[in-house]
User: Which sequence fits this backbone?
């Protein structure tokens, strides 16, 4: 995980007042369970103004005109997910407002967590567990088991 790039993106989200919740491997790391990753997974509030703030935040970090292509139409439409891959490096950002019919931004319980002096919005351990426990990906099942053991969740 590119910690500096992740920190820069999240600092820009905070500066632009983006309503977001981190989930995935970065969230696991911020909740105290180390896991390698090359991406930052975020849900964002499905509001045009919020998506405008998201785009502005990303543009303040990456000098990439293709960011103009991320629109509310993308994130409010039938397939509300965008993967942004910057021109350089292996880091990328997966941005969602909804994950199929299973999860919406509004469904996520989150908390503020310190990330090297920056307070960020992260899915709670229980939310991460619920998101991961029923999937078919073995890595998610492993994450769910680690969350269950660490935080004492019932199976």
Assistant:
């Amino acid at each position: 995980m590119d910690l500096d790039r992740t920190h820069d993106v999240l600092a820009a989200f905070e500066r632009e007042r983006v309503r977001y919740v981190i989930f995935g491997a970065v969230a696991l790391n911020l909740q105290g369970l180390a896991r390698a990753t090359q991406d930052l997974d975020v849900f964002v509030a499905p509001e045009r103004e919020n998506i405008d703030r998201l785009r502005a935040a990303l543009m303040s970090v990456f000098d990439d005109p293709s960011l103009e292509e991320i629109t509310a139409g993308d994130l409010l439409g039938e397939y509300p997910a965008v993967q942004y891959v910057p021109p350089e490096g292996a880091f990328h950002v997966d941005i969602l407002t909804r994950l199929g019919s299973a999860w919406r931004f509004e469904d996520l319980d989150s908390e503020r967590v310190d990330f090297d002096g920056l307070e960020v919005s992260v899915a709670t351990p229980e939310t991460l567990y619920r998101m991961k426990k029923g999937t078919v990906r073995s890595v998610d099942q492993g994450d769910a088991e680690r969350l269950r053991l660490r935080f004492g969740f019932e199976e």
About this structure: The two ends are 30 Å apart (CA to CA). Residues 3-16 form the longest helix (14 residues). The chain has six helices and eight strands.
